[in-house]
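Duplicate of #3305? Posting structure anyway:
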């Protein structure tokens, strides 16, 4: 059974974009996951195919209408579909590897991409969407956010990464940033690779890597050391999937 992604967007032509190349693209070709980009505008009912309107309470910009977004979801997502609905928004919970792992372990995801000022909050809540942000900056639309989310999930789908690309030791795998990497030549511009990595002593190498991971995490991201996966829920209630294991 493959992992299925549906993206609701005003710009379906942006997909698959980078998701059609490299690891994700090869996995798609092998049928390990699928991607469908649906045009929200197809759910508009008036002559001008209007999808947005001015915000109640005043202010700049336009807001995507709840009736149009709801109709777009109804048209794209079959009744009883178990996939979580994710709304990409700077107001959302930060996207973290623990949430990525939960999403990758499920049947797939339906991603809603906002544009303009965003989406009417009533449809976000009525549809039980998980509100997710990819970082503390404002993009012009949710499409790049959806691509980030999907790329992060797809590489964790069983069979997508080979042994050579294992996710076991990479950054965030145990709330730590990864240790630094080195390859040949052992000396470059007078800079030697740390001797322990040339020693062939596996236990020493593992200890050195662990220490470097802890040091860089303390220095750059001390918040990770106290992070709980429970902070990753974008809506009230239980984890996405009952069988979730903590990060
Ligand atoms: N008015 C919104 C705010 O201040 O939070 C920003 C709207 S932004 C111009 C338009 C759309 O881009 C958003 O609805 C969202 O879908 C997407 N977007 C922008 N920044 C994002 C981020 N950091 N993470 C996820 N989606 C983002």
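Output from current build:
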């Amino acid at each position: 059974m493959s992992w299925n992604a549906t993206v609701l967007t005003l710009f379906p032509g942006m997909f698959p974009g980078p998701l059609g190349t490299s690891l994700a693209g090869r996995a798609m070709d092998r049928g390990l996951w699928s991607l469908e980009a649906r045009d929200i505008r197809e759910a508009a009912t008036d002559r001008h195919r209007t999808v947005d309107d001015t915000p109640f309470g005043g202010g700049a910009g336009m807001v995507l209408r709840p009736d149009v977004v709801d109709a777009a979801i109804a048209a794209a997502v079959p009744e009883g579909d178990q996939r979580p609905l994710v709304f990409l928004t700077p107001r959302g919970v930060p996207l973290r590897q623990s949430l990525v792992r939960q999403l990758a372990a499920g049947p797939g995801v339906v991603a809603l991409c906002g544009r303009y000022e965003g989406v009417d909050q009533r449809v976000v809540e009525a549809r039980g969407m998980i509100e997710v942000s990819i970082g503390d900056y404002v993009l012009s639309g949710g499409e790049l956010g959806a691509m980030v989310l999907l790329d992060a999930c797809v590489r964790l789908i069983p069979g997508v990464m080979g042994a050579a690309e294992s996710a076991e030791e990479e950054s965030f795998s145990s709330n730590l940033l990864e240790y630094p990497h080195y390859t040949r030549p052992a000396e470059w511009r007078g800079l030697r690779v740390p001797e322990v990595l040339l020693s062939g002593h596996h236990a020493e190498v593992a200890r050195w890597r662990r220490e470097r991971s802890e040091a860089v995490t303390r220095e750059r991201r001390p918040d990770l050391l106290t992070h709980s996966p429970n902070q990753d829920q974008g809506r009230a209630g239980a984890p996405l999937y009952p069988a979730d294991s903590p990060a």
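Confirmed duplicate; merging threads. The first strand starts at residue 3 and ends at 9. The chain has a mean pLDDT of 92.
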